[in-house]
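Why should sequence recovery work at all? Because a backbone constrains its sequence more than one might expect. Tight turns favour small or flexible residues, buried strands favour hydrophobic ones, and helices have their own preferences. The token representation captures these environments compactly. In the example below, the structure is given first.
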């Protein structure tokens, strides 16, 4: 998936309830330069934790919507997401 040559064409990605992974999955998405055009990222129920949040916040992604509902996030991780992505973040 991460090596797909067509990723640069994506404007939205939804991997809802995929158990994508705490940090590993989020880090792969955040570091992938092919996803620079991504504007919507939906990861509800993907087991993203605080380490995954750190990876997403360190990414170069510029998102209009980041859906992280139903993930085990601490209050600190939630605040960090709001600081980095602002109103794009959906946690509830």
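From this structural description, the recovered sequence reads:
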């Amino acid at each position: 998936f991460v090596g797909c040559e067509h990723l640069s064409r994506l404007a939205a990605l939804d991997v809802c309830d995929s158990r994508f992974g705490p940090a590993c999955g989020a880090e792969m998405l955040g570091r992938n330069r092919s996803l620079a055009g991504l504007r919507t990222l939906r990861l509800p129920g993907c087991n993203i934790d605080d380490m995954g949040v750190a990876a997403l916040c360190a990414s170069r992604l510029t998102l209009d919507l980041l859906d992280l509902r139903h993930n085990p996030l601490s209050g600190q991780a939630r605040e960090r997401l709001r600081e980095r992505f602002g109103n794009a973040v959906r946690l509830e």
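A few observations help interpret the result. The radius of gyration is 12 Å.
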